[in-house]
Write a structure and sequence with these properties.
Elements lengths: L2 H19 L2 H4 L12 H6 L5 E5 L15 H11 L3 E5 L9 H10 L4 E4 L5 H9 L4 E5 L5 H13 L3 E6 L2 H7 L6 E5 L11 H6 L8 E5 L5 H9 L4 E4 L1 H4 L4 H11 L3
Parallel strand pairs: 1-2, 1-8, 2-3, 3-4, 4-5, 5-6, 6-7, 7-8
Bound molecules: indole-3-glycerol phosphate.
């Protein structure tokens, strides 16, 4: 079994348990359900830095990225650094994140927040809304086209935007449906953990013109942004390079300053 399959298996156990403890109608009582979303796709369109900075304590490929930085500090740091938005890992088991991290980031900032999660059930979309997300990630590699349609519709009805993650041409072809605002090309192969920015450049021309292109993972040099912009990307998702620093917010600020306007 590869890592993605393991994660999905663990996820479906968690969801079954949570559903029995907290029925979906309780989630709808969250005051954040009434909150109007803050659009990430619009923030990326208005040019700006294009940076989506991620809060990530660890990952299956890196067991210790950052164990010390409090989420409220990092969130405030990313926002004042000029990031367009923030991605918050909410997976507990493999990434050491939580929905509480998302809630705390929401209470600290106003900029768009992405719930970074392995979404396989509508329940998780309600959770995302209830904890202050503006965007959800849908990973093509773990979803059927039918599910992507249903999830996109539900998200839309809640005012949540979609970032659809693909790794290759076949996934893009099968998974892209109208109504999706952003497509993210993951430069990291989630099966082998290998990273190559060439993946983004190869897939960019196949993404429909009207859709915002995001390049995800393995970005650590401001010059890489220049290249990716030329290839048509407007969003750049960066995790480890910021989080591995003592103060991720300051690292992000230095990075954004070093980027060409
Ligand atoms: O830390 P990096 O290499 O800058 O990557 C960030 C982000 O792209 C990565 O964490 C990610 C991309 N897609 C995912 C799906 C699930 C978990 C994590 C991810």
């Amino acid at each position: 079994m590869d890592i993605l399959q393991k994660i999905v298996q663990q996820k479906s156990r968690e969801i079954a348990l949570k559903k029995s403890l907290v029925p979906p109608r309780y989630l709808e009582h969250s005051p954040l359900f009434e909150r109007q979303g803050n659009s990430l796709s619009q923030a990326l369109q208005k040019s700006g830095s294009g940076i989506i900075a991620e809060f990530k304590r660890r990952s299956p490929s890196r067991p210790k990225i950052n164990q010390h930085s409090p989420v409220q500090e990092v969130a405030a740091g990313y926002e004042s650094a000029g990031a367009c938005g923030m991605s918050v890992l909410t997976d507990v088991h493999f990434f050491g994140g939580s929905l509480e991290d998302l809630l705390i980031a929401r209470s600290t900032t106003r900029f768009p927040l992405l719930r970074k999660e392995f979404i396989i059930d509508e329940y998780q979309i309600l959770e995302a809304k209830a904890h202050g997300a503006d965007v959800i990630l849908l990973i093509a590699a773990i979803l059927e086209t039918r599910q992507i349609k249903d999830f996109t519709e539900l998200a839309g009805s809640l005012g949540l935007e979609i970032l659809l993650e693909v790794h290759d041409e076949a996934e893009l072809k099968r998974a892209f449906i109208p109504g999706i605002q952003m497509v993210g090309v993951n430069n990291r192969n989630l099966k082998t953990f290998e990273v190559s920015l060439e993946t983004s450049k190869r897939i960019a021309p196949l993404i429909p013109e009207a859709v915002i292109k995001v390049s995800e993972s393995g970005i650590s040099r401001p010059e890489a942004i220049k290249d990716l912009r030329k290839a048509g990307f407007r969003g750049f998702l960066i995790g480890e390079h910021f989080m591995a620093a003592d103060e991720p917010g300051i690292k992000a600020m230095e990075f954004i300053k070093a980027m060409e306007p």
